[in-house]
Amino acid sequence: MKAKIKVTLKRGVLDPQGKAIEHALSTLGFGGVDEVRQGKYIEVELEETDEARARAEVEAMCETLLANTVIENYEIELAR
Amino acid sequence: MKAKIKVTLKRGVLDPQGKAIEHALSTLGFGGVDEVRQGKYIEVELEETDEARARAEVEAMCETLLANTVIENYEIELAR
Q: What GO molecular function terms would the record report (chains A, B) (predicted)?
């Protein structure tokens, strides 16, 4: 089973990478961009085949290692 | 319109960040993990409301700035 995890900064947390992209896009002539936020995307290939157990395991991974839950949110999507 | 962009390394491209996560997970006692790949996740808030034009614009952003298409793939999802 494959877990696709998006880790994003919470609203209100300063995002200098996003700001840098925003600025670069405007320099390159892309107008009409209101805001850019950058996060991480992680794919984890699991041996577990049960969806509920896989989700619980990936949640534990996010809480302990993959996301800093003080400033980041995470979103898990499971696929076969 | 909001564009959600996933930028991932192509198959076969070495991913040291993914390997580091893999190793850390195993050290933390998470077994049954076959492979980890890390990519980037970018959210762009656009003023454009037409889906086709928004997609074309975001594709141009990916090709010129957001992804290095020699070693990376990108995937665009649009949401209102």
A: ATP binding; phosphoribosylformylglycinamidine synthase activity
pLDDT digit string, tens, across residues A21-64: 999 999 999 999 999 999 999 999 999 999 999 999 999 999 99
Q: How far is it, in rounded angstroms, from Cα A38 to Cα A43?
A: 17
CB of A8 within 8 Å of a chain B CB? The answer is yes
CA-based angle A76:A61:B28, to the nearest 5? 165
Q: Report the complex ipTM.
A: 0.92
Asked if A33 is an interface residue toward chain B (Cβ–Cβ < 8 A), one would say yes
The reply to whether residue A46 touches residue B40, judged by beta carbons under 8 angstroms, is no
Give the one of B24, B32, B40 whose C-beta lies nearest to A41's C-beta: B40
For chain A, give every domain's residue range: 2-79
Parallel, antiparallel, or unpaired: how do β-strands A33-46 and B33-46 relate?
Answer: antiparallel
B56-70 pLDDT, tens digit each = 999 999 999 999 999
State the residue for tokens 């076959």.
B34
Check: CB of residue A37 under 8 Å from CB of residue B1.
no
